């Protein structure tokens, strides 16, 4: 991901410095400030911020709005129930430059000149790994709010190989449940040697070897 340097509600932001050398990062791209769905997301993100910190993950948000608009919007985020301001930066992008680079608006010039409604970017989440590469992208229509539990689930799944290199996250997996194993280029005997405790190799009707589980 490019090393953006922009103003935010927490001062100037250099994206790679914000995320740090060893941390993961998440960019939450909002269609606009003073938007009901976006407000609900920011309030929930304030509540869940510690969940990301516990996962070695720094977060930031952005909209195609000016810093002045964002600072006014922060008052709503703080005052509508959470009773504290966001402890993460919300980045201004009034010229839609970041949104254009991230593929959130098709035509930057049209977005800049078409009024506030045209500047609304796609609602999206970008999960950035410690190598500063985009590991996952989640996109939602502007009318539908994010599912933060799914964002955390995907983040947990992406971090699995840090503990078990061969780990795969099966359908509806959540942290603490058994994980599947990538068994390509290995044998059952090699797996038993690699995972002496808790390994389950599952027989299939096809008699093909490709299903194995181990505790998270």
Automatic annotation (TrEMBL):
Residues 1-160 form the Thioredoxin domain. The active site is at 38 (cysteine sulfenic acid (-soh) intermediate). Gene3D superfamilies: Antioxidant, Horf6, Chain A, domain2, Glutaredoxin. It comes from the Eukaryota. GO terms for biological process: cell redox homeostasis; cellular response to stress; hydrogen peroxide catabolic process; response to oxidative stress. It comes from Fibrocapsa japonica. InterPro entries: AhpC/TSA, Peroxiredoxin, Peroxiredoxin_AhpC-typ, Thioredoxin-like_sf, Thioredoxin_domain. GO terms for cellular component: cytosol. Keywords: Antioxidant, Oxidoreductase, Peroxidase, Redox-active center. This is Thioredoxin domain-containing protein. It holds the Pfam family AhpC-TSA. GO terms for molecular function: thioredoxin peroxidase activity.
């Amino acid at each position: 991901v490019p090393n953006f340097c922009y103003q935010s509600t927490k001062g100037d932001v250099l994206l790679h410095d914000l995320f740090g050398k060893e941390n993961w990062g998440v960019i939450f791209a909002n269609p606009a400030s003073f938007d009901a769905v976006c407000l609900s997301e920011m309030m929930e993100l304030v509540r869940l911020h510690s969940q990301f910190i516990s996962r070695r993950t720094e977060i930031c948000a952005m909209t195609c709005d000016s810093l002045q608009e964002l600072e006014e919007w922060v008052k709503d985020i703080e005052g509508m129930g959470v009773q504290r301001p966001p402890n993460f930066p919300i980045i201004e992008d009034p010229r839609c430059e970041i949104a254009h680079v991230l593929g959130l608006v098709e035509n930057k010039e049209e977005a800049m000149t078409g009024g506030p409604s045209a500047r609304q970017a796609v609602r999206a989440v970008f999960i950035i790994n410690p190598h500063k590469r985009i590991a996952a992208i989640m996109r939602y229509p502007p009318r539908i709010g994010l599912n933060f539990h799914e964002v955390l689930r995907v983040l947990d799944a992406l971090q699995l190989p840090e503990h078990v290199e061969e780990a795969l996250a099966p359908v509806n997996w959540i942290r603490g449940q058994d994980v599947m194993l990538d068994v390509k280029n290995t044998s059952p005997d090699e797996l038993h040697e690699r995972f002496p405790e808790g390994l389950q190799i599952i027989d299939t009707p096809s008699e093909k070897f490709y299903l194995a589980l181990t505790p998270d």
